[in-house]
């Protein structure tokens, strides 16, 4: 029982705050209840209940959501298999065209008396309906003749593996038609065929133009298939197929994926296990698609499918349950907001000057102490300017305190707009203000102070229909000395201010 009583007292004590803390002034240690804390405690009870309700409903809905995800993934894999079958058919068609083209190419070679330079390559290309480019590779592995001017003189021996492959074809002496593949650098799909001449001096090469392949590939583009699946299912946001080389599998406009996505895809390939990343509104899954046929040529033996699912339907169910109970705590939320507003007002009264809107003396002095400690710790300069508005008493006596208040407010507002975000500006008392310049040397602070003096001289306050009064200021500027306290710093600034007043006002004097 004693333990329970102690626990109750701790809760009771946590619901009370000190009055002197609220008003930042000395006061008896009289405790008053903090309604804001009570409200927060109530929310701390209600919100977990709402979360439990949402979790319960989410568990019930998650089974259906998971089934839907599995069905979508099956549809995507099935679509890729259909694309694979279509690509195999396309490959067969291209194989037949290129085989016929190689035979025609070889016939042209014989008709030219086995002299490649006498073959009309452009005419040969036209006979292929401009669907294939023509190359002739010499014994040294160099493209000596071609319908593509920029490929003339291309030395294929710089790619050792490819050159070795060509030499094997040359020695075999038989025509070879490669499968379609995608270039690593460009991402374009290519298909080539080779036919060594009988004397093995030349290799006749055909290459289907990338744009011809792209015309067919666009219709078999996995990107478009993924988009169609996503449009037909509100659970799917996007689908991407990523190959081992880091390309998004696309038959028309391949793009490389981000490095972070590539890392996740590689992890799936290495572990042979799916990955899932869940945020509040989306679920991103990475699954391995082991290709069974033709798509193996397009970058890797297997691709990783990235599926981004929308969790909106799941979240909607949870939110619905939350909304049912939310009405019960609306009053508490409103009360909490109101109490927080009151707390902010109390805080503003504690740190800001009610007339000018700048920091008051109490808070400003605390900031000055902080800046002095920081300057001492970092061994950086700190300058301080003590300002006094000239002839302020005369203004009050001649035009009244309302005009005097306007002068203070307008001067403070104008000066505040010229300061840096980290300068400290506070009302020191009456018509006196303090500006702290962290990090400014005495020379830089002097320039800033003179600019402030000139700005103040431009401030005018209307006191009648056609009459205004101009303001000026006098100030004492001081640079923080080693081991100097704020009191000592301001005392030296006050002495410099006194000299400025004695010197005729509208002056900045630097303390010795």
TrEMBL record:
Say which domain of life the source belongs to. Bacteria
Q: Which residues form the signal peptide?
A: none
Task: Supply the enzyme class, top level.
Answer: transferase
**Known catalytic reactions:** 2 GTP = 3',3'-c-di-GMP + 2 diphosphate
In its UniProt record, a GO molecular function of this protein is: diguanylate cyclase activity
Keyword entries, A-Z: Membrane, Transmembrane, Transmembrane helix
Q: Membrane-spanning regions, if any?
A: 38-59, 318-339
CDD domains registered for this protein in UniProt: GGDEF
Among InterPro entries, the record links this protein to: Diguanylate_Cyclase (IPR050469), GGDEF_dom (IPR000160), Nucleotide_cyclase (IPR029787), Rev_trsase/Diguanyl_cyclase (IPR043128)
PROSITE patterns associated with the record: GGDEF (PS50887)
Domain (GGDEF) spans 380-512
EC number(s) on record? 2.7.7.65
User: What cofactor does this protein call for?
Assistant: Mg(2+)
Query: Know the name of this protein?
Result: diguanylate cyclase
């Amino acid at each position: 029982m004693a333990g329970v009583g102690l626990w109750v007292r701790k809760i009771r004590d946590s619901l009370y705050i000190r009055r002197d803390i609220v008003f930042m002034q000395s006061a008896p240690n009289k405790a008053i209840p903090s309604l804001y804390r009570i409200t927060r405690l109530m929310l701390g009870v209600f919100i977990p209940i709402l979360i439990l309700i949402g979790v319960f409903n989410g568990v019930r809905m998650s089974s259906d959501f998971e089934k839907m995800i599995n069905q979508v993934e099956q549809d995507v894999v099935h679509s890729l298999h259909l694309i694979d079958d279509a690509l195999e058919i396309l490959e067969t068609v291209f194989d037949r065209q290129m085989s016929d083209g190689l035979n025609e190419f070889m016939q042209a070679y014989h008709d030219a008396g086995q002299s490649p330079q006498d073959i009309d390559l452009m005419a040969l290309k036209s006979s292929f309906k401009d669907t294939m480019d023509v190359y002739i590779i010499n014994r040294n592995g160099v493209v000596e003749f071609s319908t593509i001017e920029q490929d003339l003189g291309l030395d294929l021996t710089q790619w050792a593996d490819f050159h070795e492959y060509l030499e094997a074809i040359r020695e075999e002496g038989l025509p070879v038609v490669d499968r379609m593949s995608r270039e690593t650098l460009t991402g374009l799909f290519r298909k080539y065929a080779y036919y060594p001449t009988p004397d093995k001096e030349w290799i006749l090469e055909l290459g289907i133009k990338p744009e011809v392949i792209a015309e067919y590939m666009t219709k078999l583009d996995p990107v478009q298939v993924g988009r169609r699946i996503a449009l037909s299912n509100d659970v799917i946001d996007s689908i991407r197929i990523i190959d081992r080389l880091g390309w998004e599998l696309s038959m028309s406009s391949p793009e490389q994926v981000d490095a972070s996505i590539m890392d996740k895809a590689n992890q799936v390939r290495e572990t042979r296990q799916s990955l899932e990343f869940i945020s509040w509104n989306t679920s991103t899954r990475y699954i391995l698609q082991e290709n069974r046929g033709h798509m193996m040529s397009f970058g890797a033996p297997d691709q990783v499918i990235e599926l981004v699912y929308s969790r909106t339907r799941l979240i909607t169910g949870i939110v619905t349950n939350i909304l049912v109970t939310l009405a019960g705590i609306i009053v508490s939320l409103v009360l909490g907001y109101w109490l927080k507003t009151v707390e902010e007002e109390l805080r503003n009264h504690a740190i800001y000057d009610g007339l000018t809107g700048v920091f008051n003396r109490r808070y400003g002095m605390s900031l000055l102490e902080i800046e002095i400690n920081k300057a001492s710790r970092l061994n950086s300069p700190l300058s301080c300017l003590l300002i006094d508005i000239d002839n302020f008493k005369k203004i009050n006596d001649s035009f009244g305190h309302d005009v005097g208040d306007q002068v203070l407010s307008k001067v403070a507002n104008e000066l505040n707009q010229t300061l840096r975000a980290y300068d400290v500006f506070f009302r020191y008392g009456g018509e006196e203000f303090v500006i702290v310049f962290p990090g400014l040397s005495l020379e830089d602070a002097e320039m800033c102070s003179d600019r402030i003096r000139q700005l103040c001289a431009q401030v005018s306050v209307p006191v009648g229909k056609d009459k205004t009064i101009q303001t000026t200021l006098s100030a004492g500027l001081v640079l923080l000395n080693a081991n100097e306290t704020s009191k000592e710093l301001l005392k030296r600034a006050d002495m410099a201010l006194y000299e400025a007043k004695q010197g005729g006002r509208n002056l900045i004097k630097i303390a010795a």
